[in-house]
Amino acid sequence: xxxxxxxxxxxxxxxxxxxxxxxxxxxxxxxxxxxxxxxxxxxxxxxxxxxxxxxxxxxxxxxxxxxxxxxxxxxxxxxxxxxxxxxxxxxxxxxxxxxxxxxxxxxxxxxxxxxxxxx
Length: 119
What we know:
Radius of gyration: 17 Å
């Protein structure tokens, strides 16, 4: 167990995974009108489980192993599988969860800082 894992628990890796997912969802949104583009996403729960299964497991490896293509409800004629409303909803939801995890970590760091100062 690394020092980082002891201080932050799973929250450090969760934040990194949420950041990766935000980038992936943003890429899906940006390519909503690109013919043939296949929307991708991360199974967040599976990635977090894999990233935290051993202390040496990297977040990028967990992301690669848990990434898949989204199956659209209504496929477009040009082969693009991005459904803009779905991607925007998932992006907003993930952004809120990212901010929540970040706030938790900020609180944890503030507590540690105050303890070190003797407050």
